[in-house]
């Protein structure tokens, strides 16, 4: 087993380096430090695609940590016991993987010494030591791995005299490390190299790593349960020389397998150039295949891998570079054959035990392989019958078949990094021929539109389109695999059943639902056809142990509700079930109130986890294909007529987030709703908040509910300034910051003592429930801080606020364009939004790397340059009386505690306007504040996605930017 640690020093900027090293070194477990990544921005997909599961503690600043593992990993804790309020720089995350407990550590430098940061470092060491005492004598193997920022001995630096007064080398730090070791831990690298200088960190001097002029900061501490398994280790110092690499290099150790003690003298110092596995010659495969396979990494069987998923789109298309397959109507399955043992598993790694003939045939093959395909039951016409698959043994005319369309692993070689076309060639070469039970799923290199029409005529469920060069991304909903359904099908949760008055059936209909974006079970109607008496009898046996008195839906539905298709009540009574059963239904359409119409039962889905059941919404084919279309494709897309009629505004990359549906559909004056698990009472819903526009308080709640998936990321962990308009936009308004004894118990707050010594609690905008609670107070507009509680003195962005007086909005646009010219000249990214009032806001990402004073200084430099270009109608005068009617270029907003209307915020202005992100292409004469209102904002977001994501990006290098500005503008 190979275990590594790597201070990546910015995972997004160095992701290519990380992936390159992972592919080359093939470690089983990796600890990463200094992620510089917010929690929800961690590149999980790329890590998964590289063959690793991960847990992480993401922070936008430099102190995030992560653990990667080739096997399943479970998080045990995300901090050390105890707390330290003064600083929050250090990070610790603990996971369990491969029967080993791994603690991943990042402890910062501690400079300057003496000082509070060094004192904090020693306090954190004490917390680590206390926790380590509980771990060292565990029966389980435990490793404490990471960047300790300590050089324990003179041997750990090339120049001890240089570091005498450095916190890394202070006697106090060294003693803290020694005290930790004395608990019974083994320092792995020093054990392997007792007398040699082994360095893990090199500064940015030319070829410092080549001259071995470094220090050792990254350590492996092993408890006694695992120390005896240590056999090798080294530093992949050549990685330090790769372009764009971190100032640390990856460090790794090798352990024997569990319960296999190393032989006498087996511990060795290794001089391995690259930590990847040895290649073995393969000569038994067909001609040409051996050479290809020999270039691939040698890895253990891909256990517990989950299938790659296709994105549902609304129509077929013709496009070079794509191939097409039939969308089979069955159970998705992975077949694993290793050392004569075969296993069939579902998309959620549930074992299929009912298809033993497939296992038996697999086990007769002389190979080790992982295949991806679909298990179906074929009727007399040769098409898949999903209903027959439920009980295929008892169906005389049902022929079991496993259609294989991909190969992921073969005789020890990982194939997922090969393009699909190559994987299919390997599959065709090695899959035994002429089997009725296991068959290759045929590939069609034809026009997608023609193929789809043929599939419809044949009564097939639909088609799958795949890019011929697509790699296999486990458990990812890929945009390079697309599915087009000829029939509207949906997996749903059975949450109850009904019986009509006077019926003799076991039940009349099923009450079905799906989860929304927050995991709440929503009722989507009933299905009353598709099962005969025999089927109903089987199903009622499944229902009986799940009967419950309470409805599992968020709001108990009226299961006997009349509709335009059934205007009279039938006396239906509901029996509720625990929401643990999944079935598949076919339906004609989704009605305007979110219910299925003309639904028919197709069969149970024992392969589907109820938690994963959501409404599958078709994505626009044109937008998907436009986003991933290769610039090398020789021909343009040939869409259907419907797609050709659709409006395309720019080439905006679509977000995977979608606006929610309306929260309140009734006309009641008061409603109680459950949001994020918290009950909210929303009152005065019919009150006109924007009287001229006939916009009510209910409309405001519905807007903030729908926009929450996009807005909350810009509110999370930020103190809020509450601007309250309880009487609507023309009523009295006031600001409120302190919510002590006013906010609900579940709301998260930040304690704050003002300059007069008064203790206050500021509300943190951490979730949708908090957003709606603010709205319930009459907070029409939402005002977050520029910085977060984790780094309150360091804003995430700098803002240029264009505040006009008597200017036409076209002049605001002109000023914004001048700001962009200045920023473009110094290579600074910027993101504009309308204020929703008379001006515009331009955001510049800082990544929480600088103080408010530095941000304000930078903004001041920018606006001075802009004012020189358009002095006739702009000014830097703060006092309104001194502006003489000119537009104020406001840079002073960049100060602690200041707020402006946040992105997607409504404004208390006639027209119910919204502060809306725009592309720079839209910032042109003719743009107005009334272009974006409560009436059209959600539809716009559905079209554009979130245009503001870059605002929370890594941030600019301010020193480099100022230097460039000086060279250009001086």
UniProtKB/TrEMBL annotation:
<dbReference type="Pfam" id="PF03372">
    <property type="entry name" value="Exo_endo_phos"/>
</dbReference>
<keyword id="KW-0436">Ligase</keyword>
<dbReference type="InterPro" id="IPR052171">
    <property type="entry name" value="NHEJ_LigD"/>
</dbReference>
<dbReference type="InterPro" id="IPR016059">
    <property type="entry name" value="DNA_ligase_ATP-dep_CS"/>
</dbReference>
<protein>
    <recommendedName>
        <fullName>DNA ligase (ATP)</fullName>
        <ecNumber>6.5.1.1</ecNumber>
    </recommendedName>
</protein>
<dbReference type="InterPro" id="IPR012310">
    <property type="entry name" value="DNA_ligase_ATP-dep_cent"/>
</dbReference>
<feature type="active site" description="Proton acceptor">
    <location>
        <position position="248"/>
    </location>
</feature>
<dbReference type="InterPro" id="IPR005135">
    <property type="entry name" value="Endo/exonuclease/phosphatase"/>
</dbReference>
<keyword id="KW-0548">Nucleotidyltransferase</keyword>
<feature type="binding site">
    <location>
        <position position="149"/>
    </location>
    <ligand>
        <name>Mg(2+)</name>
    </ligand>
</feature>
<feature type="binding site">
    <location>
        <position position="7"/>
    </location>
    <ligand>
        <name>Mg(2+)</name>
    </ligand>
</feature>
<keyword id="KW-0238">DNA-binding</keyword>
<dbReference type="GO" id="GO:0006310">
    <property type="term" value="P:DNA recombination"/>
</dbReference>
<feature type="binding site">
    <location>
        <position position="34"/>
    </location>
    <ligand>
        <name>Mg(2+)</name>
    </ligand>
</feature>
<feature type="binding site">
    <location>
        <position position="247"/>
    </location>
    <ligand>
        <name>Mg(2+)</name>
    </ligand>
</feature>
<dbReference type="InterPro" id="IPR037493">
    <property type="entry name" value="ExoIII-like"/>
</dbReference>
<keyword id="KW-0511">Multifunctional enzyme</keyword>
<keyword id="KW-0067">ATP-binding</keyword>
<dbReference type="Pfam" id="PF04679">
    <property type="entry name" value="DNA_ligase_A_C"/>
</dbReference>
<keyword id="KW-0479">Metal-binding</keyword>
<keyword id="KW-0464">Manganese</keyword>
<dbReference type="GO" id="GO:0006281">
    <property type="term" value="P:DNA repair"/>
</dbReference>
<dbReference type="GO" id="GO:0004519">
    <property type="term" value="F:endonuclease activity"/>
</dbReference>
<dbReference type="GO" id="GO:0005524">
    <property type="term" value="F:ATP binding"/>
</dbReference>
<feature type="site" description="Important for catalytic activity">
    <location>
        <position position="218"/>
    </location>
</feature>
<feature type="binding site">
    <location>
        <position position="248"/>
    </location>
    <ligand>
        <name>Mg(2+)</name>
    </ligand>
</feature>
<keyword id="KW-0460">Magnesium</keyword>
<dbReference type="Pfam" id="PF01068">
    <property type="entry name" value="DNA_ligase_A_M"/>
</dbReference>
<dbReference type="GO" id="GO:0003887">
    <property type="term" value="F:DNA-directed DNA polymerase activity"/>
</dbReference>
<keyword id="KW-0540">Nuclease</keyword>
<keyword id="KW-0234">DNA repair</keyword>
<dbReference type="InterPro" id="IPR014145">
    <property type="entry name" value="LigD_pol_dom"/>
</dbReference>
<dbReference type="InterPro" id="IPR014146">
    <property type="entry name" value="LigD_ligase_dom"/>
</dbReference>
<dbReference type="InterPro" id="IPR036691">
    <property type="entry name" value="Endo/exonu/phosph_ase_sf"/>
</dbReference>
<dbReference type="InterPro" id="IPR012340">
    <property type="entry name" value="NA-bd_OB-fold"/>
</dbReference>
<keyword id="KW-0547">Nucleotide-binding</keyword>
<dbReference type="GO" id="GO:0003677">
    <property type="term" value="F:DNA binding"/>
</dbReference>
<feature type="binding site">
    <location>
        <position position="147"/>
    </location>
    <ligand>
        <name>Mg(2+)</name>
    </ligand>
</feature>
<dbReference type="Pfam" id="PF21686">
    <property type="entry name" value="LigD_Prim-Pol"/>
</dbReference>
<dbReference type="InterPro" id="IPR012309">
    <property type="entry name" value="DNA_ligase_ATP-dep_C"/>
</dbReference>
<dbReference type="GO" id="GO:0003910">
    <property type="term" value="F:DNA ligase (ATP) activity"/>
</dbReference>
<feature type="domain" description="ATP-dependent DNA ligase family profile">
    <location>
        <begin position="393"/>
        <end position="543"/>
    </location>
</feature>
